[in-house]
């Protein structure tokens, strides 16, 4: 059975059982009905899948843009080489024509041409030698440029093929992202069928589980105390964080980087861009390219990366919290740092 069908069926069973009321819940430990736990588990997995699919699509978009730039660079190089080759061939043609006009007929050996000329023999010999050297040099240049043209043509063709492949992969990633968000829409429909009390039960369960995870995290990784030194509030990270906090209440949207909606990495990108620092578009690139930071040494504005595939990003907001749009149906908000499995943290170089 396809994953989408399994997830939808599991959610439907959980939601239906949850809607059945306290009769089923009474069989479970207080505050932890199995149906609510199952529904919350599936919701979290769908959030993670949707985030991972969006990040993969964003990543493919970055690679596609880079490959397109490489195609354009190599195409320009090919055009330049062809222009140089055409110029070299014209120069070679002019040299050949000049030699012909001055008696440099290829049918006559140099000694006979000297006997037939009215010029001083030494000068005629010198002029002939210079002309021959110029022609030989120009011929070598034509050959070099012809080889360069062939190489540039081959490279441009390879780059164009690679771009077409990246474009196909980007389309596949877009389809995967859209499918993940279709599943999220199904979940939204199921949740809409729950009563306010049942939704409150889910929210309370999520808050309890997050609080437990936060306590466990803080016991193992106590973040640094806030920096009260003069000028700390003007540090790039603090200013990036302040900008991100100003975006609270704006909705999550897959692939969005502002100004009216964001995905997690899009918020991080714009927050740091606001202070003149470029960070990667995806969590995976940030994890790969930016300096890693121990969780005990987090500063405001550092990027916290979540899940093993680095599919979620948040800005550290101090006091064990982060700011981010958690996922579909949520807005940019401040949440406990340990709201999801943490992979690690990275710091833009100037923070």
UniProtKB/TrEMBL annotation:
InterPro entries noted in UniProt: NLP_P60_dom, Papain-like_cys_pep_sf, PG_Endopeptidase_C40
GO BP of this protein: proteolysis
Bias type Basic and acidic residues, positions: 165-179
Region (Disordered): 156-179
Keyword tags: Coiled coil, Hydrolase, Protease, Signal, Thiol protease
Domain of life: Bacteria
Residue stretches in coiled coil: 57-91
One term of GO molecular function: cysteine-type peptidase activity
Listed SUPFAM superfamilies: Cysteine proteinases
Signal sequence annotation: 1-19
Domain NlpC/P60: 230-351
Pfam families registered for this protein in UniProt: NLPC_P60
Entries under PANTHER family matching the protein: NLP_P60 DOMAIN-CONTAINING PROTEIN-RELATED, PEPTIDOGLYCAN DL-ENDOPEPTIDASE CWLO
Family per record: Belongs to the peptidase C40 family.
Name of the molecule in the record: NlpC/P60 domain-containing protein
């Amino acid at each position: 059975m396809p994953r989408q069908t399994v997830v939808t069926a599991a959610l439907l069973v959980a939601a239906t059982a949850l809607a059945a009321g306290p009769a089923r819940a009474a069989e479970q430990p207080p505050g932890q009905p199995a149906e609510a736990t199952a529904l919350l588990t599936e919701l979290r997995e769908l959030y993670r899948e949707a985030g991972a699919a969006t990040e993969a699509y964003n990543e493919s978009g970055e690679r596609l843009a880079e490959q397109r730039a490489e195609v354009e660079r190599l195409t320009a190089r090919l055009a330049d080489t062809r222009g140089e080759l055409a110029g070299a061939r014209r120069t070679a043609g002019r040299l050949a024509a000049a030699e012909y006009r001055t008696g440099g007929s290829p049918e006559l050996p140099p000694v006979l041409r000297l006997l037939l000329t009215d010029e001083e023999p030494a000068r005629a010999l010198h002029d002939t030698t210079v002309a021959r050297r110029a022609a030989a040099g120009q011929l070598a240049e034509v050959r070099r440029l012809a080889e360069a043209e062939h190489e540039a043509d081959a490279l441009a063709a390879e780059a164009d093929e690679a771009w077409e492949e990246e474009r196909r992969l980007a389309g596949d990633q877009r389809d995967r992202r859209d499918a993940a968000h279709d599943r999220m829409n199904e979940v939204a429909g199921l949740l809409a069928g729950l009563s306010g009390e049942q939704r409150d039960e889910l929210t309370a369960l999520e808050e309890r589980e997050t609080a437990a995870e936060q306590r466990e995290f803080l016991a193992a990784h106590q973040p640094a105390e806030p920096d009260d030194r003069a000028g700390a509030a003007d540090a790039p990270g603090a200013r990036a964080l302040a900008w991100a906090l100003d975006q609270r209440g704006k909705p999550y949207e897959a692939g969005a980087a502002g100004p009216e909606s964001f995905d997690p990495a899009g918020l991080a990108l714009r927050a740091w861009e606001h202070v003149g620092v470029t960070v990667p578009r995806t969590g995976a690139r940030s994890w790969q390219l930016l300096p890693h930071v121990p969780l005990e040494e987090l500063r405001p504005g550092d990027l916290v990366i979540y899940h093993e595939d680095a599919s979620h990003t948040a800005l550290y907001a101090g006091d064990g919290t982060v700011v981010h749009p958690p996922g579909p149906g949520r807005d940019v908000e401040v949440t406990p740092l340990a709201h999801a499995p943490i992979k690690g943290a990275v710091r833009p170089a100037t923070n």
